[in-house]
Write a structure and sequence with these properties.
globular, 5-stranded mixed sheet, 5 strands, alpha+beta, 7 helices, 30% helix
């Protein structure tokens, strides 16, 4: 087993969640665990598919499994199921941090087709690809920006892709709207965190949210206090916003907010 490959304990949890084969007969030459370890190696290191070590099987087989499951939505279903299992065990801390990071696009991205449908292998998948392919010009050059909502265990619960020059604040609500963890058994998926933290780049969106608060029995004076408290918290570098949905949309003061 190579460095970073799945352990026996991890494989025992993952194997029941994988798509079941429909064909009968001899087992495949290349086991799924071996091919998945090859996919993980490629995603972890960022090498080209052809550079995947031969110990994981032929690179074409590794890529074929990755692409096939990407097109039919298998990866998303596996991720959703793993999140549900983690939430049922209390492994997800529902204090979310919202932030973004910029990724430099490959130099070949500048020569790609502007329309993906006519190309030899369309993007496919269960999600709709943005018209600009989430590529844009920023100070860093040709870039893509990733907007994430991450729980305290450092695992992302939602990701929104935009062009590199897009601002952080307009994506505050879209990235939170994508947080959705189904429950095991009856009940609606959980979509509301206990609290949300963000830096000053999201100040305008937090201000709009505070202005639109309609708490249970809250009057205009209470909403003004909420706005004042929100901006007092925004002044701190360690914690920009600390909104508690269970308290009718009220916002803690800076002294009550936990240290970031």
């Amino acid at each position: 087993m190579g460095r970073g490959d799945l352990t026996d304990e991890q494989w025992a949890v993952l194997e029941p969640l994988l798509p079941k084969g429909t064909k009968t007969g001899r087992p495949p030459v290349w086991p799924r665990r071996q091919l998945i370890d090859g996919i993980r190696f490629r995603v972890r290191t960022g090498v080209s598919w052809r550079a995947v070590p031969a110990e994981y099987g032929p690179w074409s087989r590794v890529y074929d499994l990755f692409r096939r499951w990407q097109r039919n939505g298998a990866w998303q279903r596996i991720l959703t199921r793993l999140q549900s299992l983690a939430d049922a065990k209390g492994a997800i801390a529902w204090d979310l941090n919202v932030d973004s990071t910029v990724c430099r696009a490959h130099q070949h991205a500048a020569g790609a087709r502007k329309q993906g449908d006519p190309q030899k292998e369309p993007p496919g998948g269960i999600f709709v690809e943005p018209g600009d392919h989430a590529l844009g010009r920023s100070r860093g050059g040709f870039t893509t920006k990733l907007h994430l909502a991450v729980e305290q265990g450092q695992q992302p619960l939602s990701i929104v892709l935009t062009a590199g020059q897009c601002g952080d604040s307009p994506q505050f609500e879209p990235v939170l709207e994508k947080v959705r963890v189904p429950r095991i058994g009856p009940g609606r998926p959980r979509v509301r965190p206990n609290r949300v933290r963000a830096d000053k780049a999201y100040a305008s969106r937090i201000r709009q949210a505070c202005r639109s608060l309609r708490g249970r029995g809250a009057g205009r004076s209470h909403r003004r206090v909420a706005v004042a408290n929100a901006f007092a918290i925004l002044g701190r570098l360690t914690l920009a916003g600390d909104v508690h949905p269970d308290q009718g949309g009220s916002t803690r003061s800076a002294d009550e907010a936990p240290a970031g």
